Amino acid sequence: METCRRESSPSIFTAGEYRDWLTRAPSTSAIYERLRRGRGFRHVQPLPRIAHSVESLLDSLQQERQHGLYPANVPVRRSLLRPKTEELTYTSHINYPRKFGFHRTVPFPSPTKHSDEKLHLLTLEPEEFYKYRPQRESKMMPRSLDTFSGMLRVQLLTGRGLRPTGQFDHFRDLYCVIECDHVHKARTAVRTGEHSFDWDEIFELDLVENQELSFLIYSWDPQNRHKLCYKGTIHLNMHKEGPAHSLALKLEPRGTLYLKLQFTHLRQILERIPAPTSSGVFGVDLETIVARENSGLGVPLILKRCIDEVESRGLTTVGIYRLCGSAVRKEMLRDAFERNAWLVDLTEEHVHDINVVTNILKDYLRELPEPLFTKSLFDMLLDGISVCLPDDPEGNVNLMFNILDCLPKVNRCAVLCLMDHLKRVVSHSDRNKMTSQNLAVCFGPVVMCHVLPKERSVELGKFIDVFRYLLNIWPAHRGL
After folding, report:
1. Average pLDDT value for the chain
2. What positions does the domain Rho-GAP occupy (predicted)?
């Protein structure tokens, strides 16, 4: 089976390669500096540096309200639903009290003193983490490693002892890139610090016959190239001993990365267990959702709205549908869809990272009680591809569409909607780097595979190959 793997990551990347990422997750320093320059912060003296992160700003506001900094009747919104007009009007004229004799301003993102433990976001018990030191690579090692397919939940806690190699008289901005077999899967926000960097972010990575998990920590600079500072690699073979691990990963050339891993096998993910009730969205069959929503679209709202949002601002994003967004943000978005799919706000203002939207779409398709391409139809596609002629592309397309006509109406409408969209994604592959092969790896098992409880192994290659074939022959401008 063809795999979408890259060469080992170089030690230096150009800023252009991460431009899309940086616009979605800028430096916390840049965020606060921009806010301070806005209205109301021009002549305010900064407070002492304290630790804050992009992901925890709302949590910090809630905590400060509990300590009396903000009045109790000021709402701190966490919902992704569209705010009411009167609520926006009310919150736009807030006068914060001055209880401590100084002006309240936006805090700096990092501590002034590394030794001040009160300013750390995270408190760790190092003895609870297994000290993991990567084995030295050898020519025989790749052959001896097993491959793993499923879902890997990665909680990246903190990096400690990340001392600079040169002499620095200021704080640094660092971010971490997570790779599976040298393919980018996720990227943290940028954190500012001296020796300790508290990320505390969670990602749920799709594994498709992967062997290694790598953590690459780069220095962030808006003007210069982003230089690789630290690196550590974990062999996924450890999950043969158990699904959950708390690790203190030794980095090169120095430092330790604290993280937690939770592996879920593909058999569990693709069992297609229906939701206990049909009142929600996830785990509910297509026909029930379409009939209940009665939108006139012929497809579930979550499918149409996620696709529309990706096409409005994500078609040229590098690694779209392969990269993973914040699992915390994804869970919030999921809850919003479960409550009311009509009111969910997917705009960039509320869901800054488009990868969170793509993750929600894949989760929804993965949790359908029956695959979007039903099992009987998948068998028909396999038979049809075996008789396709290489010199008759028009006949092959007609044959595939005739087979798709055998799908239930709601499945057929959803398949046409999804495939038209992914064909448009492929048309921008020169910029987003997502070819038909890469998208087939992301979507083939999700929309075609149904694992029975007694199945001990799953052959993903056939699902990827069939999906890639369909995407390759799919017309770019299909008549609707």
Report:
1. 79
2. 284-478
Per the DSSP assignment, residues forming a β-bridge with 180 are 183, 213
Instruction: Classify domain 286-473 at the CATH topology level.
Output: Phosphatidylinositol 3-kinase; Chain A (1.10.555)
Q: Rounded to whole angstroms, what are the CA distances from 238 to 146, 152, 242? A: 10, 13, 7
Q: Write down the pLDDT at residue 389.
A: 87
CATH architecture assignment, domain 120-268: Sandwich (2.60)
- Per DSSP, the three-state class of 275 is coil
Cα distance between residue 231 and residue 194, in whole Å: 18
Report the half-sphere exposure of 106 (CA within 13 A, side-chain side).
Answer: 21
Which helix (H) or strand (E) covers residue 62, if one does? helix 57-66
Domain limits of the chain?
28-108, 120-268, 286-473
DSSP 221-266: -SSSPEEEEEEEEEEGGGGGS-SEEEEEEEPBSS-EEEEEEEEEEH
Beta bridge partners of 187: 177
pLDDT at 123: 82
pLDDT at 143: 52
Query: How much is the pTM?
Result: 0.75
Burial class (CB in 10 A: 0-12, 13-18, 19+), 216: buried
Whether 214 and 50 have beta carbons less than 8 Å apart is answered as: no
pLDDT digits (tens, 9 = 90+) for 115-154: 344 445 678 888 899 999 877 654 445 456 789 999 999 9
